[in-house]
Design a protein that fits this description.
Largest sheet: 7 strands, mixed
Order of helices and strands: EEEEEEEEEEE
Shape: globular
Helix content: under 10%
Mean pLDDT: 95
Radius of gyration: 14 Å
Number of helices: 0
Distance between the termini: 41 Å
Length: 124
């Protein structure tokens, strides 16, 4: 059974940094995609960043140059380093993963596994 558990959220002032982590248990696919999504109150869930089994990364335009996604296969964790945070980054952040997949889907409905979310709040 696959379980994703996020950690690292919190409150920070604009310009600050946070590092999110997602511990994946039972996730052993050889071809896969993992990513971070976020959802602010009253808004749709949006993709933030994703990484595939080859290490290829894709970022939303709104976070390019500020966020970095990485995967530690030895520890089976997914990380999101967030720098230069702005109030618009305030949201619940979710870790997500596909089943066996050669590519990274952009639509959140195509991810089979989800964490419970971790709150990120950026104050101005």
């Amino acid at each position: 059974q696959v379980q994703l558990v996020e950690s690292g959220g919190g409150s920070v002032q604009a310009g600050g940094s946070l590092r999110l982590s997602c511990a994946a248990s039972g996730y052993t696919y050889s071809r896969y995609c993992m990513g971070w999504f976020r959802q602010a109150p009253g808004k749709e869930r949006e993709r933030v960043a994703r990484i595939d089994w080859r290490g290829v990364t894709v970022y939303a335009d709104s976070v390019k140059g500020r966020f970095a996604i990485s995967r530690d296969s030895a520890k089976n964790t997914l990380n999101l380093q967030m720098n230069s945070l702005i109030p618009e980054d305030t949201a619940m952040y979710y870790c997500a993963a596909t089943g066996f997949s050669f590519y990274c889907p952009g639509v959140y409905s195509q991810y089979s596994y989800w964490g419970q979310g971790t709150q990120v709040t950026v104050s101005s």
